[in-house]
C-alpha cells in the first residue's frame, strides 16, 4: 500500500482536528450539565435503562467510579466491547463516534483524567455513574 500524499495527509489532519474539536465540545457540554444538575435525573439516550442493565450484566467487573484502562484497551477487552457496542448500531446515533471518557468520576476532564473511547462506552459509563450518584462529587465541588 503506498504512503498517502501530502494533500491526503493534510485532509487527515483536518479530519483529526475536527474530531478533537467535536469530542472536546461534547465533553465540556456534558461536564457543565453534571456540574450544575442532579445527574441522577439526567437521561442521555431514550434507552438509558436498557443500556445500564446490559452494561451491568456484560461488564460487572468494571468499577465506574475509577476506570481501569486495561478493561478497555487490552485485546480481550477490545473484542468484548466491540461485540457489545455493535448491538446498538441501529439504535443509538453516533454509537461508535470517538469521544473522551473521564477515568475518575470525581474529577473534571484533564489530561491525566481522560482516555479515548467511543460514544457507547461513554453512555454506558456515564449512565451508570448517574444512576449511582457518582457524578454528585463534581456538582458538590
How would you summarize this macromolecular structure in one to three sentences?
The protein is mainly α and 141 residues long.
Quickly count the helices. 6
Order of helices and strands: HHHHEEHH
**Structural class of the helices, strands and pairings?**
mainly alpha
N/C terminus separation? 52 Å
Round the Cα radius of gyration to an integer and report it: 16 Å
Q: What general form does the structure show?
A: globular
For the largest beta-sheet, the strand count, sense and barrel status come to: 2 strands, antiparallel
Helicity, as a percent range? 40-55%
Question: What is the strand arrangement across the widest sheet?
Answer: 1-2
Topology, number of strands:
2
Mean pLDDT: 89
Describe this structure in words.
With 141 residues, this protein is mainly alpha-helical. Helix content is 53%, strand content 7%. The chain has helices spanning 6-36, 48-58, 70-73, 75-86, 119-131, 136-139, and strands spanning 98-102, 114-118. A two-stranded antiparallel sheet has the order 1-2. α2 crosses α5 (119-131). The protein is globular, with a radius of gyration of 16 Å.
Amino acid at each position: 500500500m503506498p504512503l498517502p500524499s501530502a494533500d491526503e495527509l493534510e485532509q487527515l489532519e483536518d479530519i483529526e482536528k475536527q474530531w478533537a474539536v467535536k469530542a472536546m465540545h461534547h465533553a465540556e457540554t456534558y461536564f457543565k450539565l453534571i456540574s450544575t444538575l442532579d445527574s441522577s435525573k439526567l437521561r442521555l439516550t431514550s434507552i438509558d435503562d436498557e443500556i445500564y442493565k446490559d452494561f451491568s450484566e456484560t461488564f460487572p467487573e468494571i468499577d465506574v467510579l475509577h476506570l481501569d484502562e486495561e478493561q478497555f484497551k487490552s485485546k480481550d477487552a477490545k473484542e468484548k466491547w466491540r461485540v457489545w457496542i455493535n448491538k446498538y448500531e441501529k439504535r443509538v446515533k453516533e454509537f461508535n463516534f470517538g469521544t473522551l471518557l473521564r477515568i475518575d468520576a470525581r474529577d473534571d476532564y484533564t489530561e491525566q483524567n481522560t482516555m479515548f473511547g467511543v460514544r457507547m462506552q461513554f453512555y454506558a459509563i456515564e449512565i451508570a455513574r448517574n444512576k449511582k450518584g457518582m457524578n454528585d462529587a463534581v456538582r458538590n465541588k
